[in-house]
Amino acid sequence: MEPLGKKAAGTAAKALSFGPARKGGPVGAAPDYVGVPSPAADWLPILERLSISADEAARIEARAKLAGVPFQTELLASGLVSERGLFHELADSLGLAFLEQPDSDALVMHDWQRLAALARNGGAGIALSLSGGSQSIVLIAPDRLDIPSLRGFIARYPRASRRIRVVPPSALRRAIAERSAPNLMRIATGALFAALPDQSARFVVNAWQGAILGAFTVSLLFAALLMPAATLLAVHGALSLVFLSCVLLRLMIGIAPIKPHAPKFSSIRPAEMPVYTVLVALYKEAAVVPDLLVALGRIVWPRAKLEIKLVCESDDLQTLNAIRAQELRSYIEVIEVPGGGPRTKPKALSYALPMTSGDFVALYDAEDRPHPFQLVEAWQRFRDDDETLACLQAPLSISNRRESWVSAMFALEYAALFRGILPWLARRGLVLPLGGTSNHFRRSALTAINGWDPYNVTEDADLGVRLRRLGYRTDVIHSPTLEDAPVDVRTWLPQRTRWFKGWAQTWLVHMRNPAATRRELGLASFIVMQVLFAGMVLSALAYSVFLTTAAGLLLYLALDGELRAPHVVLLMIDGVNIICGHVSFLVLGWLTLQKTERSGFWARAAWMPVYWCLMSAAAWRCLWQLYWQPHHWEKTTHRPSQRTARQAKNPAPEPMILGSSAPIASRSRPS
Known about the structure:
The protein is an alpha/beta fold.
């Protein structure tokens, strides 16, 4: 293989605004020097061939200076030119060959170099590849190009220039990602377990937990056979303590003043704003892709400092085709997660995390419609606080609460959680069970704790506890995210089963060493963890026990049976539990609803016993899955938002769109 030459390679790298290659690695694999990228004037001959006027170029350059980014970055983010078109014209202008898609197997890069390139906002920039006959060629995909320097290099080294290929940055990035898939999969499935095996849900229970659970189950069965009445009373008493602890928490939160807060914003300069990464995990979400792109397009953030990663399973062709049908902007990347390992959302997110470069990371679900200024509020909170603030949870608000009784009850739950429970915990500095979406992370903290647990089916709850255990804080912000709740039991039940199973997993994981967990969380947060995870699951199980026992005793009495003293005690216990549970739920729900949302409240309350029976069914179902399918992810089916559909039929005047909140796909608006 004929070498390119160290001097020529170093000159080429410098022309691309990169430093010389590290010893033993390909050119540009780990850039450590940033030159001065070309201004609009250097690009004008190329832009004229793309029908972009000098006036338009001047406007783009003004926005680039305002945001503190190179002209080239702002140009691609604007959507006025396609990446392929720009780099094809660049190649023609420089007299270089254009390569649309490099061969991933031909890349000459070490594993660490590929991962470093994927973690960089602009990709590799420059890389070596092998062509036919084992001859080396140089692939250049510059994101900060110094055009005069590159022209000078071509004039000085014409022979070497014949072996240079201009490649679109996203194409080179795809090739590197394809080659790095095995490494990324190992990181996604094994990093947490390798670093903190005791905090991974890869195994449901450890040895001593399994022994205790087995002994307890056997003892309970023998006691039920030998002393049925005493055993039933003891079980009711124990479950009542757990049930009433959840009731007490709701009442404590309800008694505290619940004051809605409006987000506070201070003046900002776009040049000060960092790169922000938005992660969206999608699986079988083809129907909601247009709505998702509309929602993400309304986010206010400089487009040249925004990177959006749409994370999909590689075999989910319908979703991938729905995304590919859109003309996406340069800052949007589709990450295809290979099969293997647990097929869970946290595994997909852990696979994608090494391919992000933002200082902060926001996580959304496919059906989410975040407040346009949510990223701004989160960043200002991070900026004004210290490094221990690792995560901010935005409130989730249900927009279709009137669509069915299921969505109405779901909305009541979400109001209590995101407007009552989480703010109450945050004000007291207690551990926060994060919601599964609208989380904003300080990337350094997320990386330090090894990201999400790929084996936990409620990775959000686990992450809240793990962050706290490792010395980080979580808090809440006020700009909400709208989403639609399930409208029928068929959709709701698998989702709630997964939630209960994940809470049980989280509790079992963090109770493997109770003394260490109590020490790291603090006593108050340790107690809150017992109530929010074990307590909620056991309370849902207990509700059916209470209801069944009470119904059986009342039926026995109706059939002229005579209640004995133990029966009366059981009936009183069950009645108190059921009444207190319903009252505490209604009180907290009422207090957290806005006045405009309280219409029809008592009609919803009439469905509460049915809804709680469904929760109990989901809890019993989760126990079966926890044993047989602990890492199985039951997919929640989402559909296009009815709210968006109504807006499409009666469109309002389009708001003025700034460069920081422009559409991210040209065909993403519903028709």
